[in-house]
Amino acid sequence: MPFRLLVPLGLLCLLLPLHHGAPGPEGTAPDPAHYRERVKAMFYHAYNSYLENAFPYDELRPLTCDGHDTWGSFSLTLIDALDTLLILGNVSEFQRVVEVLQDNLDFDIDVNASVFETNIRVVGGLLSAHLLSKKAGVEVEAGWPCSGPLLRMAEEAARKLLPAFQTPTGMPYGTVNLLHGVNPGETPVTCTAGIGTFIVEFATLSSLTGDSVFEEKARVALMRLWESRSDIGLVGNHIDVLTGKWVAQDAGIGAGVDSYFEYLVKGAILLQDKKLMTMFLEYNKAIRNYTRFDDWYLWVQMYKGTVSMPVFQSLEAYWPGLQSLIGDIDNAMKTFLNYYTVWKQFGGLPETKGRAVGSGRLDEGILFSQTEQVKSAEND
Ligand SMILES: *[C@@H]1O[C@H](CO)[C@@H](O)[C@H](O)[C@H]1NC(C)=O
Ligand SMILES: *[C@@H]1O[C@H](CO)[C@@H](O)[C@H](O)[C@H]1NC(C)=O
Ligand SMILES: *[C@@H]1O[C@H](CO)[C@@H](O)[C@H](O)[C@H]1NC(C)=O
């Protein structure tokens, strides 16, 4: 029996309009060129609007049409857009932006930055642009890929994050001041993703710079999380990095945890590291056993395995992609179909605020009607 989804009414006004008139209605093949042009047009709409209205701030505020700093003061949207410019083949704009960043980017600033966001967006954005640049036809300096302006900026940004890892457990604080290090009195509570989402960037940085410190820090944090799993094999949502005690004990695949699992798999592939893949596959067993109901994934209590939050949220949408990466196509298709059904019916995935936790990321989602219904659905 399929279970019903309860959609809060407030969500309806946030829904994206469904796209009508695209090629590829029933029975005919979709036209990739049409979608390619559509994606390009969407990118340039957002990119040019940012440049016109929000630069040099981090992000555009689309309602007031001005800029503001969100995750630091890095002109973050420019960094986020760098690799996309290369993928779209816009080398001249890419080179212009690299020069702008070289002249303006300064990490010696009194800013309280999210360690997680600075890594994935700034360090990751700079590194992927650096690595893609040659293939995209950008002239690179001698010694590339072990030298180059973007790599130097990425390394500088990453060094600013290292003080966050100076904890008794090796698991990082969530916030660091780029000038002064960790603030006195900083909360020691970090979400799981905020601890386990470094290996891809940090291992890349270590191999390009020859300094092993980044990869070592990322690996220690991953090991501590692994050792902190419950005896039924699950990790919770937030942990105290000083004591190693779980503070939020909801186990699931969505907000607060998501990219930890993603980085175990991507790290295993990137580094050809069997240990990382073994960790993921062990988690995967427990996730499937305790959190999966009819190919939906709910939140459960990490020690007991009982459902604690029966919600589906947009940040879980990466899961079928991750299943595909490990070759689990069958299950990926089932979960994808569930999520796609929500998308088709409502025009988007739910981003309602649920149990918010102090990580800078919101728990968002659709509530499943009743846990009992979900359980009985599984037994059908
Ligand atoms: C590259 O991007 C800039 C800024 O949006 C734009 O003016 C230019 O036309 C683009 N060039 C190409 C080749 O798309
Ligand atoms: C950073 O956080 C600390 C501790 O909460 C606070 O005292 C300080 O004013 C903040 N600095 C900035 C630039 O926001
Ligand atoms: C699955 O859950 C049951 C309890 O519901 C437990 O006995 C069993 O060991 C679990 N198996 C795995 C692989 O986690």
UniProtKB/TrEMBL annotation:
InterPro entries: 6hp_glycosidase-like_sf, EDEM1/2/3, Glyco_hydro_47, Seven-hairpin_glycosidases. GO terms for cellular component: endoplasmic reticulum quality control compartment; membrane. It is found in: Endoplasmic reticulum. Its EC number is 3.2.1.-. Keywords: Endoplasmic reticulum, Glycoprotein, Glycosidase, Hydrolase, Signal, Unfolded protein response. It comes from the Eukaryota. This is alpha-1,2-Mannosidase. GO terms for biological process: carbohydrate metabolic process; endoplasmic reticulum mannose trimming; response to unfolded protein. Gene3D superfamilies: 1.50.10.10. Residues 1-21 form the signal peptide.
